[in-house]
Amino acid sequence: MDQKPAFTEPKYRVILFFVTALFMLWGIAITLGDVLNRHFQNVLHISKSHSGLVQLSIFGAYAVMGIPAGLFMKRFGYKKGILLGLFLYAFGAFLFVPAADAVSFDFFRIALFILACGLATLETVAHPFVAALGDQRTSDQRINFSQAFNGLGGVIGPTLGGYFILKGQQIHSNDLIAVKYLYVIIGSVIVLIGVLFLFLKVPHLTHAHNEVIDYENAEGNKKIEKKLIHQKHYVFAVVAQFFNVAAQGGTWAYFINYGHEMVHLSDERAAYFFSLSMIMLMIGRFTGTFLMRYIAPYRLLSIFAAANIVMCLIVAQGAGWLSFIALLFINFFFSIMFPTIFSLGLKNLGGKTQQGSSFIVMGVIGGGLFPPLMGLIANHDIAAAYYLPIICYIVIFLFGYCYPRLAKPN
């Protein structure tokens, strides 16, 4: 009688806990970028489409750093890859000091780009790292579990930003001093975590994705490793991740604007609602992790993508609180998409898993290209801008729907 594979093994629990904490750290940085988007509009007097370049700086770093981070990880291993990511994260955070002193949007973009190179490195390393900490058949569950704490970071980010940066009655709400101080604290915390990780022992790992899974028969099969370009499920995963992060980047970049313009919230209160939406994202990831024990990950992905098509249609109507509530629910259904696409794409890649991780991370550039495009529409109608993510969720739906045939061994 076959037993269900374990979530992980006892020897991996400590390292899984630590790497999961890293997911939270880059969640803080990503969502703080969306707070900065709105703050720069106010303080530096730039348009919505121009402020969308904040997301281009962040997600553009993923396109630049994805392959170098993968090569570094392959040469020096998971541990040194994570240390490199933490160093770049901290260095970029400390660059906020001269950027604030110079009152320069371009300088902030440079600092954000370097910081995001660290985030890209951490993501490139952490996803295959978590996947390797146990049986391949439970890698979807482990990555979704870790990504739930990325959602916790997403709650903390806008909460910090709302209180320290956008708070209306605060003395520094109309300048860049609070931004500078906040990022000095963040950089210091990242340095401390890097020192702690330096002394953490990482066990020897045999990668979880060395076995091939047939999703039609749910049986393990051996086969000769194919080139990445010939792995249809993997190629579609890269495309799906591009559109997935495009939807994320655009939705999050103008969340505070939407709350301010459509339901007349202050920027500070809108930021707190953004934190609430991230709580919903976190709940969605824990819910998704549970449901994947009963529903195939690719099928659940399609269901959630279809739900978000409906949510976007409601948001685009600009129907006051009804549309704003739908905007909150986008994050619930968005929750499982990034980790599930990532995990499904990495399956069956064998020795090419680390290289494959690099290209999927590069797909994150979608989050940099989409916000300026949405911003052009949002300059005139913030609600109508939310028609654009529907295109992205259609692609994700098709990825999940077609996955069993794409991943089936020949």
UniProtKB/TrEMBL annotation:
It is a multi-pass membrane protein. GO terms for cellular component: plasma membrane. Residues 15-407 form the Major facilitator superfamily (MFS) profile domain. The chain crosses the membrane at residues 12-32, 52-71, 83-104, 110-133, 145-166, 181-200, 234-255, 270-288, 300-319, 325-346, 358-378, 384-403. Keywords: Cell membrane, Membrane, Transmembrane, Transmembrane helix. InterPro entries: Lfuc_symporter_FucP (IPR005275), MFS (IPR011701), MFS_dom (IPR020846), MFS_trans_sf (IPR036259), MFS_TsgA-like (IPR050375). The keyword Transmembrane applies. GO terms for molecular function: fucose:proton symporter activity. Pfam families: MFS_1. It is found in: Cell inner membrane. NCBIfam families: fucP (TIGR00885). This is MFS transporter, FHS family, L-fucose permease. It comes from Mucilaginibacter mallensis. The lineage of its organism: Bacteria, Pseudomonadati, Bacteroidota, Sphingobacteriia, Sphingobacteriales.
